[in-house]
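Ops channel
N.P.: pipeline sanity check, posting one input/output pair.
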């Protein structure tokens, strides 16, 4: 990884407030040589699904050994645990609410520990800002070489919310919207291999049942295979099924946001 440890940050904190800067200040105070990379701070507020997808999409392009901190944490200050996950290539730090789940499952979970060691956090922990007071200092301490075992006890499982696994019933997949990108493209929690399992390939006609409408669409390789303004289905660059409109905004058109239920079946 080179001499400078990489720590990435992903939050829903936005870009107007001091929150992200405070986390970076804590990291640099503990581990001055850290190379801090912002994945994004523009995740929709409290939207754990969207954050989990963006984290999964980004982490695998970082050098092995990178430490990834994700804080989208509507349950901050409650009994939800703070955890550190060691995967095949990375360390993931954040709340145990599903935000780390997709990235962890994709890379392969090796070890999960609950954050318990108060020597690795800030002396005073605010119940409303665990990003600054717990997750940033834990990541920085790990980056400077503190052993993972010192974080806290081992646990056997992490929180796996509904979005981590669509429901398959024969040739029908019941999934949900994971993420809406800046173009209004709608990413579903349905991966390419699942579509193959139900017998779908390019040019197959699929019935898409949304909350307010029903569509029959062909699975095509990329946006340009549809006419301008035409809805389409494709496998996106992360291997997930995406509902889009060529040069249009599918999320707005169909009234979709993260968590919306979607049913896919071979037409």
């Amino acid at each position: 990884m080179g001499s400078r440890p990489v720590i990435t940050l992903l939050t829903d904190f936005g870009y107007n407030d001091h929150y992200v800067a405070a986390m970076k200040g804590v990291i640099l105070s503990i581990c001055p040589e850290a190379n801090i990379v912002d994945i994004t701070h523009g995740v929709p507020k409290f939207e754990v699904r969207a954050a989990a997808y963006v984290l999964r999409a980004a982490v695998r392009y970082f050098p092995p050994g990178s430490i990834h901190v994700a804080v989208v944490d509507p349950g901050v200050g409650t009994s939800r645990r703070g955890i550190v996950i060691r995967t095949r290539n990375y360390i993931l730090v954040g709340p145990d609410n599903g935000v780390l789940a997709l990235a962890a499952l994709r890379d392969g979970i090796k070890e999960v520990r609950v954050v318990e060691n108060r020597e690795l956090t800030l002396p005073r922990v605010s119940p409303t800002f665990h990003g600054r007071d717990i997750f940033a200092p834990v990541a920085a301490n790990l980056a400077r070489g503190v052993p993972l075992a010192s974080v806290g006890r081992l646990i056997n499982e992490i929180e796996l919310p509904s979005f981590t696994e669509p429901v398959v019933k024969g040739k029908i997949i019941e999934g949900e919207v994971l993420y809406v990108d800046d173009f209004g493209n709608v990413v579903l929690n349905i991966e390419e291999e699942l579509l193959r399992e139900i017998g779908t390939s390019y040019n197959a006609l699929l019935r898409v049942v949304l909350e307010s409408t029903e569509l029959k669409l062909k699975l095509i390789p990329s946006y340009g295979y549809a006419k301008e303004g035409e809805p389409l289905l494709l496998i996106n660059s992360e291997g997930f099924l995406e509902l889009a409109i060529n040069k249009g905004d599918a999320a707005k058109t169909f009234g979709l946001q993260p968590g919306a239920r979607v049913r896919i079946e071979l037409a």
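N.P.: looks fine end to end. The chain has two domains: 6-150, 166-266.
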